[in-house]
Amino acid sequence: MGHPLSMLFSPISINTVEIKNRITYPSLGLVYSYDRKLNARYMEFYKARAEGGAGIVTVGPCGVDFIGSGIAFLGIDNDAAIEDFKQLTAVIKKGGAKSWIQLFHSGAYAHPFLIDNQTPMAPSAVYSKYSKTTPREMTIEDIQAVISAFAQAAARAKRAGFDGVEIIGSAGYLISQFLSPKTNKRRDEYGGSLDSRLKFPLEVIKEIRKAVGPHYPVTIRMAGNDFVEDSNTLKDAALIATAYEKSGINAINVTGGWHETKVPQLPYVLPESGLSYLALNIKKTVSVPVMASNRISSPDTAENILKNGCADMVNLGRVLIADPKWPIKAFQGKYNEIRPCVACSQFCTDRVFSGKPVGCIGNPLAGFERERRLEKSPVSKKVLVAGAGPAGLEAAVTAAKRGHRVEIHERSGAIGGQIPLAASIPHKSSFSRFITYYKAMIKRCRIEVYLNSTVDMALIQQRNPDFVVAATGAEPLMPGIKGINGPNVMSSWDFLKTNPWTGRHLAVIGGGAVGLETALFAACKGTISPDTLEFLFSYNAENNDTLQELLFNGAVKVTVFEQMEKAGKDIGISTRWVVLDQLKKHGVTIITGAEVISIDNTFVVYKKDNQETTRSFDCIVAAAGSKPVNRLGAALKDSDLPYTEIGDCTSPGNIGKAIHQGYLAAMTI
């Protein structure tokens, strides 16, 4: 019987280069320097992805000139960069992967403050929503200079030891701007028909091929659909891919749309492998290898993309940030031991868009491979962890890996803390994979777990540990509103845990992340499932307008009261718009600048613009945050026992903060 992931772990060739498996780590902006140069942080990051078992590790984006990339991206626009890249390619090859580099030019997407306040250049002077500026139109001399810059960068990449180069022709960057009638308004030979708009990328490919020779792999990353109005569609993408193949491209890396699209490309609302159909569309038209992208998380999903003929290779981007050893663990059948990527975007996409270094909520080592390297403790201690939320679980696993003898005591009947609450939110069920992961690691590390066990000083004296980790979590914070303890009021935690029927009209007090997600949970009650939607659609049982109504108009009408002028201010930049869009689709009313004054049975009294209004609801849910639960920490202060306090029991935060604190605390024991 063959390996269950036989296609994923079979070799494949791109031009003359053989790759050991079908897994690619794609180019993702990391922002680990602001001088365009490689450093130890980059080296260690890419080293970990190579040693983790990926077939290809792609470095980049790497700017072919300054005005197209700026200070936040690596640069390969001068010969001085070659020596550093030689060191990196040697590290990647030693790790067992083939090294690729993505050649990058952002065109109109360049933010002026990143390019010394120069005006970005683009095919036409069309305002960019992404960079919030109007670029200057490129002259013919500019075009020729950029084409030459791409070719020279490719030649440097080859001299630096890269096994292949990838041209970025996706995401709304320069090549996308030339290809799109939305951004290319030129009247010369580089604008007009699709053939004319293809002239620039095809000339880039031609000159790169001249620079690197016929046997060197040249690949391109392209949008399978721009997902932008008045731009290239699925059908156009197939024509573009055909032109690329004819021009000598050796593999095509297919991703989704532009950065400014209103179709989510990465967040958790995108179903797993939800954009693999874009790769299939291209694969039907070309004979060179095709790569699928976007939210491919599980080994089975990756294998099925290949077995179903959608693509020849898969990109695992954020997935390999979350766990660089994903390929090794998948090959060994240790699926549950893979640190999950839950597509939250909190420490990756959000940070890139904010100009900050990339990390991962679930992997404290991502971006810190050097300074947070796990080392064995010189002395094995007995460690008692109080609390099995994410902070306590990470502390326990990390301490056990360091050689300590660990036991976990959890006051409830299950591990996970608030993780099940997060996983109950629509489209966020993947958060439950954290529990799957920690259960697998508890078993592997032989950690003793005691459920329904409240830790106090008596239990500590009985267990006699050398060190205590207090990770006792938090509890709902009920706001100081008159009537908040009434019979028709409940906390968001209780609402999400019990999923009660509360009547047709629901009020949520609090428009932060928890409040908005609670509102979405309630608004989805009574809506049809994806399976039902497919059934009704496939049999033409209802027209499209009715299907949309059934998909978004459920059994509960929700109103959110938020005291601030904006709701969801604590949600990340890359996902806030997604949450607000979902709420709008589901008909949730959000009243901002509204102070709830009192609750009287079913009546909510609130003030907005100095005017008091009273409304009646069947149920009121308080989503005002949480407060620490740390009676144990207070008791430990009066003892001589070494201890530390982590997670929500110190100050409530997100799951990323909890996991990172747990790891760092265990490193000090």
Q: What does this protein structure show overall?
A:
- The chain is globular and about 75 Å long.
- Helix 3 runs parallel beside helix 6 (199-212).
- The strands form seven sheets. The chain has an eight-stranded parallel β-barrel with strand order 3-4-6-9-10-11-12-13, surrounded by seven helices. It has a five-stranded parallel β-sheet with strand order 16-15-14-17-28, with helices on both faces.
- The longest helix is centred in the N-terminal third of the chain and has 20 residues, at 140-159.
- The chain is an alpha/beta fold and 669 residues long.
The chain-level mean pLDDT equals 96
Span between termini: 46 Å
The largest sheet is: 8 strands, parallel, barrel
| Low-confidence runs of at least 5 consecutive residues | none
Strand portion, in percent?
15-25%
Strand-pairing-aware structural class:
alpha/beta
Shape summary: globular
Radius of gyration from the alpha-carbon trace, in angstroms: 27 Å
Discrete helix count: 23
Number of strands: 28
Strand order of the largest sheet: 3-4-6-9-10-11-12-13
Q: How much helicity do the residues have?
A: 25-40%
Tag the structure with descriptive keywords:
single chain, alpha/beta, 5-stranded parallel sheet, 23 helices, 669 residues
Topology:
Layout: E1 12-14, E2 17-19, E3 23-25, H1 40-51, E4 56-63, E5 74-75, H2 82-94, E6 98-104, E7 121-122, E8 136-137, H3 140-159, E9 164-169, H4 174-179, H5 194-197, H6 199-212, E10 218-223, H7 234-247, E11 251-255, H8 276-283, E12 290-292, H9 299-307, E13 313-315, H10 318-322, H11 326-331, H12 349-353, E14 382-386, H13 390-401, E15 405-410, H14 419-423, H15 433-444, E16 448-451, H16 457-463, E17 467-470, E18 474-476, E19 489-491, H17 492-498, E20 505-509, H18 513-523, H19 530-538, H20 544-552, E21 557-562, H21 576-585, E22 589-592, E23 594-600, E24 603-608, E25 611-616, E26 619-622, E27 626-628, H22 631-637, E28 643-645, H23 655-667
Parallel strand pairs: 3-4, 3-13, 4-5, 4-6, 6-9, 7-8, 9-10, 10-11, 11-12, 12-13, 14-15, 14-17, 15-16, 17-28, 19-26, 20-21, 20-26, 21-22
Antiparallel strand pairs: 1-2, 18-27, 23-24, 24-25
